[in-house]
């Protein structure tokens, strides 16, 4: 069964852990010096937060986490059907976990990952450069979020 994933950048990790623990009525399942994660069943979500210097605050990326290789193959097929460029990252370490993953961005630059977690890691890890996937509306962020080119400066209003 698939699980929805959301990763949010925060300014104050401790305050955010307290807030989300109250909101979810649950303590995080993983807490590190710069990261926390809740694996919730109701709603079924992998909700993660991280505090990185200079990183974007707010939603960094969203995705679908699967439980086995068959589901991963199914979701990879969906990425192909979405008709956007897909980066097949393969085996990687990210967010204190070892995973198999691929990335795609929607037409507005919202970055999605599809992944199967295969174990824990003692390091946060890093992410590939996915600039070719994201539109100018995507934001550059830290690990676990694809590094994309900054949007061009706009002149005037709107």
From TrEMBL:
Highest taxon, organism lineage: Bacteria
Lineage of the species this protein comes from: Bacteria, Pseudomonadati, Pseudomonadota, Alphaproteobacteria, Sphingomonadales
NCBIfam families, alphabetized: ArsI_CadI_VOC (NF041414)
Organism: Novosphingobium jiangmenense
Name under which the protein is recorded: VOC family protein
Record Gene3D superfamilies: 2,3-Dihydroxybiphenyl 1,2-Dioxygenase, domain 1 (3.10.180.10)
Domain VOC: start-end pairs: 2-117
Coiled-coil residue spans: none
């Amino acid at each position: 069964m698939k699980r929805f994933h959301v990763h949010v950048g925060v300014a104050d990790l401790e305050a955010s852990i307290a807030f989300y623990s109250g909101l979810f009525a649950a303590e995080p399942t993983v807490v590190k010096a710069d990261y926390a994660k809740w694996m919730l069943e109701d709603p079924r979500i992998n909700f993660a937060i991280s505090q990185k210097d200079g990183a974007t605050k707010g939603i960094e990326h969203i995705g679908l986490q699967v439980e086995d290789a068959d589901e991963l193959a199914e979701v990879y097929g969906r990425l192909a059907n979405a008709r956007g460029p897909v980066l097949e990252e393969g085996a990687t370490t990210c967010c204190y976990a070892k995973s198999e993953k691929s990335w795609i961005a929607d037409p507005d630059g919202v970055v999605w990952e599809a992944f199967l977690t295969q174990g824990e890691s003692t390091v946060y890890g890093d992410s590939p450069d996915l600039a070719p996937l994201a539109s100018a509306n995507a934001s550059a962020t830290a690990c676990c979020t694809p590094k994309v080119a900054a949007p061009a400066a706009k002149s005037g209003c709107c």
